[in-house]
Automatic annotation (TrEMBL):
<feature type="transmembrane region" description="Helical">
    <location>
        <begin position="114"/>
        <end position="133"/>
    </location>
</feature>
<keyword id="KW-1133">Transmembrane helix</keyword>
<feature type="transmembrane region" description="Helical">
    <location>
        <begin position="139"/>
        <end position="155"/>
    </location>
</feature>
<feature type="domain" description="ABC transmembrane type-1">
    <location>
        <begin position="73"/>
        <end position="208"/>
    </location>
</feature>
<keyword id="KW-1003">Cell membrane</keyword>
<dbReference type="Pfam" id="PF00528">
    <property type="entry name" value="BPD_transp_1"/>
</dbReference>
<keyword id="KW-0812">Transmembrane</keyword>
<dbReference type="InterPro" id="IPR000515">
    <property type="entry name" value="MetI-like"/>
</dbReference>
<keyword id="KW-0813">Transport</keyword>
<feature type="transmembrane region" description="Helical">
    <location>
        <begin position="83"/>
        <end position="102"/>
    </location>
</feature>
<keyword id="KW-0472">Membrane</keyword>
<dbReference type="InterPro" id="IPR035906">
    <property type="entry name" value="MetI-like_sf"/>
</dbReference>
<feature type="transmembrane region" description="Helical">
    <location>
        <begin position="20"/>
        <end position="40"/>
    </location>
</feature>
<dbReference type="GO" id="GO:0005886">
    <property type="term" value="C:plasma membrane"/>
</dbReference>
<protein>
    <submittedName>
        <fullName>ABC transporter permease</fullName>
    </submittedName>
</protein>
<dbReference type="GO" id="GO:0055085">
    <property type="term" value="P:transmembrane transport"/>
</dbReference>
<comment type="similarity">
    <text>Belongs to the binding-protein-dependent transport system permease family.</text>
</comment>
């Protein structure tokens, strides 16, 4: 019993030490980057080309304390979240269907592959015609940019599920809805979350 306790204690200490080392490495990397930045800025001698780290920090503090900038950031956040929700609403069901059914995948794949090849800026004139001036075009572009990572990662998540899980559920008399909620969705969730994370990042890049 004492051997097990000591082994667990050693394992916990190793994990703590590993986390501390990771933190120290990150701090060291940050210090090195800031040091190189400071030296480079001093040698260039132009705040227009490369400002000092302290000047950037002061500017950052000024931005986050400016009510007008904070207001605009909140508006942008709302647009990104709305676009992300639309991308999730359309992308998640389509990805699940395409991942589960090869027939649906063959049906929708040409449309999805064709649409995602079009540069996001090419849709700007059309979105202005469709939605007018305002939040509509921006939200559409965010949703359009984010829907494809969700679709593709959801398809990958569903396809990676072993057939044994489906067979085991069917052998126990599970209904299609039960298989969907208790087998497919939980097993594909890691890939779905990966797609959602990528959708948010691409949404930020699509903000106009």
């Amino acid at each position: 019993m004492e051997v097990k306790v000591s082994a667990n204690t050693r394992l916990k200490k190793k994990k703590v030490n590993s986390k501390l080392l990771d933190i120290l490495y990150k701090i060291l990397a940050l210090v090195i980057i800031i040091g190189i930045w400071q030296i480079s800025a001093q040698k260039i001698g132009s705040s227009l080309l490369l400002p000092m780290p302290m000047d950037v920090f002061k500017g950052f503090i000024t931005c986050i304390t400016d009510p007008e900038i904070v207001k605009n950031v909140i508006i942008t956040l709302q647009r990104v979240l709305k676009g992300f929700m639309y991308a999730l609403i359309f992308g998640l069901p389509l990805g699940l269907i395409m991942g589960f059914s090869s027939s649906c995948e063959k049906l929708f794949s040409p449309l999805v592959d064709s649409a995602r090849q079009v540069p996001i800026m090419a849709w700007v004139p059309l979105t202005i015609v469709w939605f007018g001036i305002g939040d509509g075009p921006t939200i559409f572009l965010i949703a359009f940019a984010g829907v494809f990572p969700i679709i593709l990662n959801t398809i990958q998540g569903v396809r990676s599920i072993s057939k044994d899980y489906y067979n085991a559920a069917k052998s126990m008399g599970a209904s299609p809805f039960t298989i969907f909620t208790n087998v497919m969705l939980p097993a594909a969730l890691p890939d779905i979350l990966t797609g959602a994370r990528l959708a948010i990042s691409t949404g930020w890049m699509s903000v106009i």
